[in-house]
Specification:
It is a single chain. Helix 1 packs parallel to helix 8 (218-227) and helix 10 (275-286) crosses helix 11. The protein is an alpha/beta fold. It is built from 16 helices and 21 strands. It has helices spanning 50-65, 68-71, 74-103, 107-127, 164-177, 192-198, 200-203, 218-227, 240-252, 275-286, 307-318, 339-355, 388-391, 407-415, 430-439, 472-476, and strands at residues 13-14, 16-18, 21-23, 30-34, 41-46, 135-136, 143-151, 154-158, 181-185, 211-213, 231-237, 256-260, 266-269, 299-303, 358-361, 378-381, 398-404, 422-426, 444-447, 466-467, 480-488. A hairpin with a 6-residue loop joins strand 4 and strand 5 (41-46). It folds into 2 domains: 8-261 and 461-483, Aldehyde Dehydrogenase, Chain A, domain 1, CATH 3.40.605.10; 266-447, Aldehyde Dehydrogenase, Chain A, domain 2. The strands form 5 sheets. The protein has a 7-stranded mixed sheet, sandwiched between helices. Strands 10-9-8-11-12-20 form a 6-stranded mixed sheet, sandwiched between helices. It has a 3-stranded mixed sheet with strand order 1-5-4. It comes from Halotalea alkalilenta. Residues 31-485 form the Aldehyde dehydrogenase domain. The active site is at residue 260. Belongs to the aldehyde dehydrogenase family.
Length: 500
């Protein structure tokens, strides 16, 4: 939990954003947001509660039911999204700097992510008036049947601390294109950039109340938001436990959800792969963003004939990685975002050692760097797939390496997990590529690359990795209801006691 500070009055403050205005919470409560690099509070965030959720949901409901937003055509909504994209590019450096202070990611990556969110709003701005319904040929004579898509209404968006604006955008852009209004609950660790971002919506032409932000903690804000009767859909990215709780609460009211949860994704290297490129892909998959990504390739599966060679190359490549201040251009691995996550990663490293895994690289914290919230890039060998370190999501720079014999053995290991978010395959064999792609139980499969995403491409998981899809054309359908309309051209009603 972010800490409180005795010098709180000296810190910049970020309020809630409700009905077009930034404001304190109703009870004027605040909490501190810490900088992961130096561990010091740098901002005060308004601490919302159930009463603030009520105000935000009512504002979103009004905006959806009356006024300018429902009167807009899909084309006009699209223009607002495109204008927002231009504003994001204009303000990207400032918003990225705020987000970097909140979660400690590298300045180069955060700035790139914020700028890239603009492309999502451009994409869905163009898509808004192109979600076509259909005329349905039926077996009934004398009727004309067609479908129409209608927005679901008020949408709750709950996002994590690792990529706040990016992962919010994956939900927010298609929701707005569909005509929904939203209430966003950002992570209590990374709320400031969301408030700063929300100020752009009025400038982009969005009516008041279309986008609202209530900061705070799960039980105080998240649960009242999920259970509010006027909220019709919940979009969530985060941990398994919270995702299951949200699913349970939503099911009681028959609300729809999109859930992007955890992963324990396999990165599979065959003996015919380009090993230099494979090493880079493995590094990108697990050590970029300090391993704090849901799609991290945290299980490396290597064909036995090249296992030792690949591990040797990998260790040599990663050993010189530069840990340090995320604002410095030369830094390659930044701090762990939260104190709790830092402790969790170190606990899993000890669990791995106790299970018999061999630490080939790293395995320690770096207390001399910043506030000490750094974990060395860590590689474990001699790992069995039934070990906790191979089955449970660590969400940090910790890689486990396991050998396999052939494609079927690799599939057996890869699919033997509760998750199914992503997978990587490294091979030059086209037949083997297709064989693996068809049999891997994962929502995304990268071949000879890893960690690429796009606004054009659906993203989501199998099994315990979630429900629904984000990005691409598919995402907008998560935020609409399909209505079927039957219009009769018959002048006479047939026997009313018999269904037509």
């Amino acid at each position: 939990m972010p800490s409180d500070s005795t010098s709180a009055d000296l810190l910049p403050r970020y309020g809630l954003f409700i009905d077009g205005e930034e404001r304190p919470s109703l009870d004027d409560a605040w909490f501190s947001s810490d900088n992961p690099f130096d561990g010091k509070p740098w901002a005060r965030i308004a601490r919302g509660g159930a009463a603030d959720v009520e105000l935000a949901v009512q504002a979103a409901h009004r905006a959806h039911s009356e006024g300018a937003w429902p009167a807009m055509s899909a084309t006009e909504r699209g223009r607002c999204l495109m204008h927002l994209a231009d504003l994001i590019v204009e303000h990207a450096a400032r918003i990225a700097e705020i987000e970097m202070r909140d979660n400690g990611k590298l300045a180069t990556e955060v700035t790139g992510q914020v700028r890239y969110t603009a492309e999502y709003y451009r994409y869905y701005g163009g898509l808004a008036d192109k979600v076509e319904s259909s005329v349905i040929p039926t077996d009934k004579k004398g009727v004309f049947a067609y479908t129409r898509y209608e927005s679901k209404g008020v949408v709750a968006i709950i996002t994590p601390w690792n990529s706040p604006l990016s992962l919010t955008t994956w939900k927010l852009a298609p929701a707005l294109a569909a005509g929904c209004t939203v209430v966003i609950k950002p992570s209590e660790f990374t709320s400031a950039s969301m408030i700063e971002f929300a100020k752009l919506f009025e400038l982009a032409g969005f009516p008041r109340g279309v986008v609202n932000v209530v900061c705070g903690f799960g039980e105080e804000v998240g649960e009242p938001l999920v259970t509010h009767p006027l909220v019709s859909h919940i979009g969530f990215t985060g941990g398994d436990a919270a995702g299951r709780r949200i699913y349970e609460l939503a099911a009681k009211q028959l609300k729809t959800v999109t859930l992007e949860l955890g992963g324990k994704s396999p990165n599979i290297v065959f003996d015919d792969a380009d090993l230099d490129q494979a090493v880079k892909g493995v590094v990108s998959g697990i050590f970029a963003a300090s391993g704090q990504t849901c799609l991290a390739g945290s299980r490396l599966l290597v064909q036995r004939s090249i296992h030792d060679q690949l591990v040797e190359r990998l260790v040599a490549f990663v050993a010189d990685a530069v840990l340090g201040d995320p604002t410095h251009e030369g830094t390659q691995i930044g701090p762990i975002a939260t104190p709790g996550q830092f402790r969790k990663i170190l606990d899993y490293i000890e669990i791995a050692k106790a299970e018999g895994a061999v630490c080939a690289l790293g395995g320690k914290s770096r207390p001399e760097l910043g506030a000490g919230r750094f974990v060395e890039p860590t590689i474990f060998t001699h790992v069995r797939n039934d070990m906790r370190i191979a089955q449970e999501e660590v969400f940090g720079p910790v890689l486990v390496v396991m050998p396999f014999e052939d494609a079927d053995d690799a599939l057996r290991i890869a699919n033997d997990t509760a998750y199914g978010l992503a997978a990587g395959v490294w091979t030059r064999d086209l037949h083997r590529t297709l064989y693996m792609v068809e049999r891997l139980k994962a929502g995304t499969v990268w071949v000879n690359n890893y960690r690429a995403t796009s606004f054009t491409s659906p993203f989501g998981g199998y099994k315990g990795s979630g429900v629904g899809r984000e990005s691409g054309i598919q995402a907008i359908h998560e935020f609409v209801e399909t209505k079927c309309v039957w219009i009769s051209s018959d002048l006479q009603v047939a026997n009313p006691f018999v269904r037509r």
